[in-house]
Amino acid sequence: IPDSYFCPITFEIMKDPVIDPEGYSYEKKAIQEWLKKNSTSPITRTPLKTSDLVPNRSLKESIDAIRKYIKKGEEKRKLDLEKLRKNKPSVVKKEEKKKKK
Predict the structure, then answer these.
(1) Half-sphere exposure of residue 32, counting CA atoms within 13 Å on the CB side?
(2) Which of 5, 14, 42, 71 has its CA 20 to 30 A from that of 29?
(3) Rounded to whole angstroms, how far apart are CA atoms 86 and 36?
(4) What 8-state DSSP symbol labels residue 6?
């Protein structure tokens, strides 16, 4: 997952990214909270206001696409595991024992 998907304040993958005039993106709620206590960018320390922030739609679309891709992969792994449990339960038990070690 690209570093640009992570908010520099929360260090979590953003859900509602906004971008400042200098090109830095943040999770909207996190930067709004930051700006309640500070009047500068958390990265450059230049003056920054909430009104300077705009939605970063392209980043949001990219993040949403990767989330969807990951979710599909997780769903496929679950289905594969269910099939394996049905058809070869001994293999699943061996794998689960390995994970516990």
Answers:
(1) 9
(2) 71
(3) 55
(4) B
Amino acid at 80: D
C-beta of residue 66 within 8 angstroms of C-beta of residue 5: yes
Please give the Cα distance from 19 to 27 (Å, whole number). 9
Q: Say what the pTM is.
A: 0.70
Give backbone dihedrals phi and psi of 78, rounded to 5 degrees, phi first.
-65, -45
Nearest Cα residue to 14 out of 72, 48, 64, 83: 64
Is residue 25 within 8 Å of 18, Cβ to Cβ?
A: yes
Least confident of 23-32, 53-62, 75-84: 75-84
